[in-house]
Write a structure and sequence with these properties.
- Chains A, B: Pfam families: Pantoate_ligase (PF02569).
- 2 copies of one chain form a homodimer.
- About 2% of the residues of chain A have low confidence.
- With 314 residues, chain A is of the alpha/beta class.
- In chain A, 35% of the residues lie in helices and 20% in strands.
- In chain A, strand 3, helix 3 and strand 4 form a beta-alpha-beta unit.
- In chain A, the strands form 2 sheets. In chain A, strands 1-4-3-2-6-7 form a 6-stranded parallel β-sheet, sandwiched between helices. Chain A has a 3-stranded antiparallel β-sheet with strand order 8-9-10, with helices on one face.
- The interface between A and B is large, with 40 and 41 residues.
- Strand 5 of chain A pairs antiparallel with strand 5 of chain B.
């Protein structure tokens, strides 16, 4: 790693865009790593991927913004962990981050006239806010946003696609890095970029795990020691499934049942276990091409997700 | 007007973006005028507005693309008029248009696997296309897209917001000009640009009318001479309503009833007559601030729209 270097902290949208355009005018590739803060080794690996994204000099922007629109009112927006000072130290220690974009709020708030609700699901943004003159534009990736995390978190991908569009329009990056731990999110963003013609290369960065296999997540901090131990059953069952599939156990119903059984026996509450095609996220019955097993499960009050890619042909 | 000058015709997305970035690097303001072709004096007035948009030299791109996703299968995509050679002559005659973006198709087509329909309304794009690997990302301006034209054309503004997002991402303009004849469309675009943080100034350009008052539209060509004569009742009734309002007749129910009566008596079939706040498009009962009266009506097989802004305080 390079020597420690303080990134510039930018809070204003116009200043952020001007910063980015200056870097681009200097011939630099602008790479963005969107985060919600409370950074861990997983995030730092995204930054390494950004640094390696181009042969040209890369100007790296890390965004730290907890996006209200991707949380439903019942979800954990209020308790989402944060440590901005700690985040800045970690970013400085990488020596490669040029700017941190940390805006106070990225949504226009209306005058308080509440419009008729348009559907079942609303986000924290809409709960606190009237629809009158406030934010009302949403980017929807209509097929990929359904199923898996989209089934149990109905506003999540709409909020993600929308905030990422906003960040893309503010920062105008050439490259953006997303973690494959949020596998469906990564595919949603890739599809959105293709469909809306954003001039941005999306890099999917591999999952970073603790020494014992637990996928890194800002939410892990909320796990008790006991819950954390139990939660190891997620990564273990995924690795076992992969090993089995490569040996010929490719029946998805069997594989899923076994994972559900393992997680349940260790005290987890399964949200979903799905085996889907890697790009389309369409469920498959038999593993005979590039697939990914995706899992979401609750341990205590913490919802964890994890996944493993498998390609029996490779 | 300047001397005639042939605009460069660009059909490829990457070439368009490269063209635009070169102009910007030269210090020019890039202005785009999105059209569906079959150009008339109304479009040319948008180009004049684009030319006047900045004190810097302006590079003007006119897009000509009939966007399938904003037409429902029941609508007139197949018969939408076109005359590319004539359009080019008209653009050359302005002497100020630098490029014409005329792509063959801007949507990714899937492999033919049809996903379950997600709602009632679909567009021509979705009818011809399976949802499998094809385009599935939509930009929705959820409140403004409802009502008026959105009520009778349920996929229209979704298609418009999406194609405009795509054109913005391909061309990366500094300025975009839209006609206020499509009043709701203009407001939808303004809101989308605000909500998604596009770095683009939107200019709303005034309605251009024939000598007899008919608002210019590519669809006017489909009117018979008799229908065209009858259709003048639209602009006449709007001007009468405005004159009346400025004299104190500000009761919206009365005004709307009178317009409906006039249009019906002259053989029109009214789709809607609405009096709404100019920015929010929320219906009002009394005219006591900046409002706009919007009308859509069929004359024969042609659906025409028109509107008039009124501000009794000015």
């Amino acid at each position: 790693m390079a020597a420690p270097r303080e990134p510039e902290v930018i809070r204003d949208k116009a200043a952020m865009r001007a910063w980015s355009r200056r870097r681009r005018a200097e011939g630099k590739t602008v790479a963005v790593v969107p985060t919600m803060g409370y950074l861990h080794q997983g995030h730092l690996s995204l930054i390494s991927a950004a640094a390696a994204a181009s042969a040209d000099p890369v100007a790296i922007v890390v965004t730290i913004y907890v996006n209200p629109s991707q949380f439903a009112p019942s979800e954990d927006l209020a308790t989402y962990p944060s440590d901005f000072a700690g985040d800045l130290r970690k970013l400085a220690s990488t020596g490669v981050v040029d700017a941190v974009f940390n805006p106070p709020d990225l949504y226009v708030r209306g005058a308080g006239r509440r419009a008729a609700a348009t559907g079942g699901a609303i986000s924290c943004l809409e709960e606190e806010e009237a629809a009158g003159d406030g934010h009302e534009t949403w980017v929807r990736v209509e097929r990929l946003e359904k199923g898996m995390c989209g089934a149990s978190r109905p506003v999540f991908f709409r909020g993600v696609a929308t905030i990422v569009s906003k960040l893309f329009n503010i920062i105008e990056p050439d490259v953006a890095v997303f973690g494959k731990k949020d596998y469906q999110q990564w595919r949603v963003i890739c599809r959105m970029v293709r469909d809306l013609d954003f001039a941005i290369e999306i890099i999917g960065s591999e999952i970073v795990r603790e020494a014992d296999g637990l996928a890194m997540s800002s939410r892990n901090v909320h796990l008790s020691r006991e819950e954390r131990e139990k939660a190891l059953s997620i990564s273990r069952s995924l690795v076992d499934a992969r090993t089995g599939a490569l040996k010929g156990n490719t029946d998805c119903k069997q594989i899923k049942n076994k994972i559900v059984q393992t997680l349940t026996e260790t005290g987890g509450q399964v949200d979903y276990v799905e085996i889907v095609e890697q790009e389309s996220l369409v469920p498959v019955e038999q593993i005979d091409g590039p697939v990914v097993i995706c899992v979401a499960a609750w341990f205590g009050k913490v919802r964890l997700i994890d996944n493993i890619e498998i390609d029996t042909r490779s």
